[in-house]
Amino acid sequence: MGGGGKYPYPKWVWSYYGGWWPSPKRVVTNSLITGAGIAGLLTLVWNFSANHELRHRYPDRWIPSMLWSREFHDPAFKAMWEEQLAKEGRQWIEPIPDWWPFKKQQAKDV
Fold it and tell me: CA–CA separation, 69 vs 58, rounded Å?
């Protein structure tokens, strides 16, 4: 029923689960390597996307991408949006809301 024992296989072939006959000690190492690779690729794609994000219409409400998009933090873009919103009779929405826990605290004068 078993079809025979283990046969010779090329040792240079790399696979996530450890090869033809997986070995648990390699699964942990390979998982870490794969996770680091995925995290690296995700970081590159995220940065590219955030740097090239461009809105053709100002949002009606706060959206999460306002936190990292340069369009809402760059003074030139901000002035352009404020001018456009004034024409439309709308108001500027702060990109970092008051409830955001990682907001930079401004120094208070005492």
Answer: 12
pTM attached to this predicted model? 0.59
Q: Which amino acid is located at 62 in the chain?
A: W
- Flag whether 12 is in a domain: no
Considering the domain boundaries, does residue 10 fall inside one?
no
Q: Residue 63's domain spans which residues?
A: 55-99
pLDDT, tens digit (0-9, with 9 covering 90-100), for 89-103? 988 888 888 888 877
Distance from C-alpha of 14 to C-alpha of 83, rounded to nearest angstrom: 57
**Is position 73 within any domain?**
yes
Please name which of 49, 13, 21, 16 lies closest in space to residue 35, comparing C-alpha atoms.
16
CA atoms within 13 A on the CB side of 12: 0
